Structure prediction request, 147 residues.
Amino acid sequence: MSDIHLEREFAVTPERLFDVVSTRAELIRWWGHDGWTFTDENIDFSRTGPWFADMRSEEGNRYKLSGQVTLVNRPRSIGFTWAWHDDEDKRGPESHVTFTISETGVGAKLEVDHRELASDDIAAQHARGWAGPLGRLSRLLSDERKP
Prediction:
């Protein structure tokens, strides 16, 4: 099993960052990659219970994820399980994600820990995969600060 750890700082309060990474209305603004659209979703990390996201890339490829939100500790942390679905909608191996938010001198830091990935190669793919949504999150929060 392999793990990844990513960190990003944002010039927002921990409470604002928590809202952006937990609530459906905010998640659908940055989750996924540029050009992807949601075809179906129940993505809400502000409460425990099931979640899923069914998305399409610009090329028309389908990407479906699902899991269970297991921990909500506003405004500090969120924990959830994560599994990709195959073309027949069969759920693959499950891993675990934790968002940890802490106050910093410039605002708030988001730490993403994605644990129990099947291999080092899968972990490297997920590290690259998180770069797109985290980049979108950075742009979203940066745009909010513009007059």
